[in-house]
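Render HTH dtxR-type domain-containing protein in 3D.
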Amino acid sequence: MALRESGEDYLEAILMLHRAHGVVRSVDIADQLGVTKASVSKAMSMLEERGYVEMAKRDVRLTEKGLARAEHVLEQHLFFRDLLSAAGVDSHVAAEEACHMEHCLSDDSFSKLKAYIECVER
């Protein structure tokens, strides 16, 4: 079953928090995403069932599968944010809209778009 946008947002938040702090707790995820701890708990259960995260005592850890997906989503986010910023879009708007754009393209379409942009920039 494909991961929905909210699931990808959780994985991306876990990755960013891990990079910033090393340890990721559910309360940190809730603060990062502006959701309740109950929502995080429900999401973590689903992500754990699907093999994306492992729950330790108080920590949330990405599995290899979760890390790969989180890195891909983050790559897409940064790509679209930077592309929009380069086109003159306000940085706050670019970040917000990139958050939506990162979820709407297939992996194949994203790869081809990225390759095209890199080719044009040369």
